[in-house]
From TrEMBL:
This is ABC transporter substrate-binding protein. Residues 66-343 form the Fe/B12 periplasmic-binding domain. PROSITE patterns: FE_B12_PBP, PROKAR_LIPOPROTEIN, TAT. It comes from the Bacteria. GO terms for biological process: iron coordination entity transport. It is found in: Cell envelope. Transmembrane segments: none annotated. Its main location: other.
Length: 343
């Protein structure tokens, strides 16, 4: 989200850095055999009810909606459970057409993206789809994520909206909420693929605990932007909080911003915190590791960087059991590969 998941000194700066709104193709229910071809939408019937976490009120419909429009990251989670939506909006593709990180395993080549930048939301095409429901993530103070504020009333006049809170609950709770929405939309959570995904998530969590237990060290999670190095505050990022719960010794910054997400360090002061391993936010709006190494000497001089102990983490993972597992597996691999610099 803006002031939280995305480091920015002002809301305007945050929104400028944030990514993109899009809308996409008409999709139907899906079923497949594994995580790449999700299995599960069984065509639920009967009334539909689901909690909108923006205001604590249930959204009730006479029947299960078949024309659902979703924020790309949320649509990616639904896709992992076997539910495809009528359209998407949010960061979907990169300039070369490759999937954005938040698109997860969505078949982006099949999507019609109406806008791939913050503030772009084609309300006219949204209306033409005949939407029955719009769903997005919710961060306190920002309503439906990636729906332009000046178009929100118009959008929700065309279809009721649901927001899923992703800034405060624990990772497991957020994933369970996405799974519950998928079930409400017709996913079979007991399918072979979905059952395997739950097991994979549990195993991935175990691998993080095991990797750190066998190889304890001081770990620093950061994001890198031109204005400085952002030190992530573990309690306010659900992925990092999960790692702490699993025993990982993550640096807690002593001067986070007013939202509690980051401490901004100038590049001259990038060495404020000592760490044996650094996990760099790999979202596409940040500076990638190779550019940091080539163009930012104070980064290159950090002991963990010089030792090659730089690994990736994603501050906005796809909140499905598959997506959560992939993120925890990525972190576990880094923890297993690094070594304490003291010996």
């Amino acid at each position: 989200m803006p002031l939280r998941a995305y480091p920015a000194l002002s809301r305007r700066g945050l929104l400028a850095a944030a990514g993109g709104l899009g809308a996409a193709s008409v999709l139907a229910a899906c079923g497949g055999a594994d995580e790449e071809e999700p299995e599960g939408a069984g065509g639920a019937s009967g009334p539909f009810a689901f909690l909108d976490e923006r205001d604590g009120q249930e959204v009730e419909l006479e029947s299960v909606p078949t024309k659902v429009v979703a924020f790309t990251g949320l649509a990616a989670a639904l896709y992992d459970y076997g539910v495809e939506v009528a359209a998407v909006f949010g960061p979907t593709t990169l300039a070369d057409g490759a999937p954005d990180l938040q698109a997860g395993r969505l078949p982006v080549e099949e999507l019609t993206v109406l806008g791939n930048a913050w503030g772009e939301f084609d309300v006219e095409q949204f209306a033409e789809l005949g939407p029955q429901l719009i769903v997005s993530h919710y961060y306190e103070g920002f309503d439906l994520w990636f729906v332009p504020e000046d178009r929100l009333e118009e959008v929700e006049a065309l279809a009721p909206g649901i927001g899923i809170e992703v800034s405060k609950p624990k990772l497991d709770q957020i994933i369970d909420r996405h799974a519950s929405l998928a079930k409400a939309l017709g996913a079979d959570l007991e399918s072979e693929a979905n059952s395997a995904a739950v097991e994979r998530f549990g195993a991935a969590a175990g691998s993080v605990a095991a990797a750190f237990g066998e190889n304890p060290m001081k770990v620093l999670a950061v994001g890198a932007w031109p204005d400085g190095l952002y030190i992530a505050n573990p309690p306010t990022f659900n992925v990092l909080a999960k790692c702490v719960e699993l025993g990982v010794d993550l640096v807690v910054p002593d001067n986070p911003d007013q939202n509690g997400y980051w401490e901004l360090l100038s590049w001259e002061n990038a060495d404020k915190y000592e760490a044996d391993a650094i996990f760099l936010d790999i979202r596409t709006n940040g500076i990638p590791a190779d550019v940091l190494l080539a163009d930012y000497p104070t980064w290159a001089a950090l002991p963990a960087v010089a030792a090659g102990h730089v690994y990736g983490w994603n501050a906005e993972p796809v909140y499905s059991h598959v997506g959560g597992a992939i993120e925890l597996e990525r972190i576990a691999e880094g923890l297993a590969a690094a070594k304490p610099l003291g010996g």
